[in-house]
Amino acid sequence: MNRLTLNLLGSFQLLLDCKVDARFESNKARALLAYLAVEHDAAHPRERLAEMLWSAQPLDVVRSNFRRILANLRAVIDDRNRRPPCLLITRETVQFNTASDVFVDLIYFLSLAKTPKTEPGWIEHLTQAATLYRGPFLDGFELDDCPEFEQWTTIIRSEVALSAAALFCALAEHRYLHADDDAALALYRRCLLIDPYHEAAHRGLMRLLVEHGERSAALLHYSAFRQHMLDELDAEPEPQTAELADAIRIGRLIAVGGPQRFVGANPPDVDWPGYGHNVEFVARTRAKQIALLSEYAHQTERNHGCVVFIAGESGSGKSALLQAFVHQIRRSDQPWLIGVAACAGLIGTGIPYQPVIDSLSAFSSSRVEIQRWIDEASSLAAASFPPNQAPSSAGSAPISGNVSARQLTFPLSSLHTQLVHDLKRISLYQPILLALDDLQWADAATLALLFDLVQRLNDSRVLLIGAYRPYSADRDESAHWLNELVQESLQHADAYLIDLDQADGREFVDALLDCEPNLFDDRFRRELFLHTEGHALFTVEMLRTLSESGQCRRDPAGLWRVNNGIDWEFLPPRVEALIRRRVDRLSEIDRALLNAACIEGDEFTAEIAAAVCNVAAKTAIEHLSGALTYHYQMVTAIGMMHLGAREVARYRFRHHLYRTYLCAALDKVQRSYLQQKVAAQKRSLFANPPAFVLNVETTTQSEAPLI
Predict the structure, then answer these.
(1) Is 260 helix (H, G, I), strand (E, B) or coil?
(2) pLDDT band, residue 179 (cuts 50/70/90)
(3) In this structure, are 492 and 534 located in the same domain?
(4) Looking at the 3D structure of the chain, how many domains does it have?
């Protein structure tokens, strides 16, 4: 049989055991073969494939071109003589048949690269995968008149690059731990050629340089990398990288030889796996939310489009959930038109419609009417929102809360109607998913358009998903007026809300732990939940910190387990940085109230905090129930407690780690002073036990003991 070998890593290469006279008619035949081979899990509609390759031509021409290209492709690979054939072709669909006598390097590469560390032969599989990687996916291959194919190529190329970088870094770490420094150095450098921002590889390279006595070179490497991050991404390196540089700078990282390699350095392969970059982790830990989104997608396919809002505070996993669902839709049997964009939190005036334009641009080049809408929106929005009246973005003054989403739609209603009409018509052929992240930064024109879309999509095949923070600590207003749009949509339209702040935190913790083989008992799981309350970022970073510090590590069987006693009061660097940014924005009185509150406990009394800070109870409640609840999201109200003839207001910290940070920030003198003041106020206030409790949202009271 004539075996077919298709190499897609590096330049396109097709090899056949037997000579075939036919040649590829054009690069579009190669593109078709590459697309079918990579997306082999599903049968693809012929018209969909044809439209991808000939986006701007009449339908009859497109069909004729596709039949010709498909015939040429079958002749080149000698598919008529294959048993079974490489291509499974019907009148409606085409699918690549992996059961045929074929070898596709990318398929085998990904299979090997995903081998878990716990499986026998893990390192051999990674080594085989490394030999298959000849370069970027379809390196140098371009189809200038096929923007949809180019977009797909870019996505696959990025996914493959991430897998390859992780693979070479894992191999480098293995060689490093086995004292094969030359091989480790070459592998780290190969990883960084693929992904210049792969920080684990940068850390490994720095460790190797120190091992060989090149401490100055390690510090220069870090300095150059940090400057590159600042120049290109306006971001700092990860805390672990900065901490390693500090350790090298002060001489704490000392080369000692042997299997441990460094005093004070942790083996680089003990980190708890990253959460946000692993769609499989997200799919397992957010199974309920993914199932809900899938149901809304099926509902949309049945011509009942809808809008879904994903709400949650910073770090709750909104973006990760959105990305995981988009990934699932891309891999589904039903071909969707997918547009993904995010609103930018920039200083100054927002660009009207920018996130909508960005999302529609994913398929606008093959849809003339959408491109026409984009052009018209850019000019009309600029006229409707002159520079001195433009909608607010992250750092500028907000639009008045008295302006409703309904009022904003009027001047541009014809433009909105046009887009709704175009989307509905296109969705007759394929369902459409528009995924917009960070809606809290959306400009007024975008929110007005979204309000119109919410009202009109119920009889279409359009699914709109928007992720947002209900309140933002970067804005001056206490409640962002996006919430008005969401509330009106939920009450008067076919809209749904997934609130990650109200998700089952313990279930998330258990699912996250069970993504890796482990021996964690119920006590550990309960303590982890109590300290992170199921907050996605806090939980993941706590696990990463425990693994890096050696308090949790893999045993020889590959199972995660508690290694030493757990220091639960230690704050992970990334969590500490996030909380510090929020706390640093607090006013003097807000900070003073929270300092007093953290001494009392996770749950505290407004009147006690007010007395300690020498402010009126009414003023303290205004701050606690105002900015500290809605603006900074540091606390939440529990209810009113009745003490004889008096009522007092009870609150709790929104997360235990907020209180941990505030307590740690107090020096010994401050802490002792506040403890005495709080103790005196508690003795005075709670001299008699509470008679009963009114309007208490929680059923338990975790009073701190008298100090």
Answers:
(1) coil
(2) confident
(3) no
(4) 5
